[in-house]
Design brief:
Layout lengths: L1 H22 L16 H5 L12 E9 L6 E9 L3 H15 L4 E6 L12 E9 L13 H4 L11
Antiparallel strand pairs: 1-2, 2-4, 3-4
């Protein structure tokens, strides 16, 4: 009896294993983010002419703020592998070189002083920018690129 149960269990497990590719796979919808240059979100909503962020970063938030007609662009990025003083100096030099109408605030993350070198992200920069127009590229028109999903957007079946 024990042998029959063991063989039955093995047979069921083998059947599930062999048949699962036919029944248990998710259908791909191919709604992937398209290949973009490294500055993807900032490329879709360009920075003022000549300004580039002079350090490795991730965009955390990019939005328009303020009353209609007097909006400003608020861009929040995290900077990587440099200290806040270096981030401030590099960005100040870049803003000066571009002659851009930009204000910014650099904030360090509250990292343990003796372990700061272990962390990649070291702080944030909040940039106050003039509003910009979206780039006229097909990739930038896709909410899957910009992560700016309109209300009611349904996912593909």
């Amino acid at each position: 009896m024990r042998r029959a149960i063991t063989l039955g269990t093995i047979a069921v497990a083998l059947a599930v294993f062999l048949l699962s590719p036919r029944f248990g796979r998710a259908v791909t919808v191919h709604n992937y983010r398209p290949d973009l240059p490294p500055d993807s979100l900032v490329s879709c909503w360009p920075l003022p002419d000549g300004l580039r962020l002079p350090f490795a970063y991730q965009v955390r938030r990019d939005r328009l703020v303020g009353p209609p007609g007097a909006e400003r662009r608020e861009l929040l990025v995290q900077f990587d592998q440099i200290d806040p003083v270096t981030a401030h100096r590099r960005l100040a030099d870049a803003v000066r070189a571009a002659r851009a109408p930009v204000r910014f605030v650099v904030r360090p993350l509250p990292l343990p002083p003796d372990q700061a070198e272990r962390y990649v992200v070291r702080g944030t920069v909040l940039l106050d920018l003039p509003p910009s127009r979206p780039a006229e590229t097909p990739a930038c028109a896709s909410p899957y690129t910009t992560k700016d999903f309109p209300p009611g957007l349904e996912t593909a079946p």
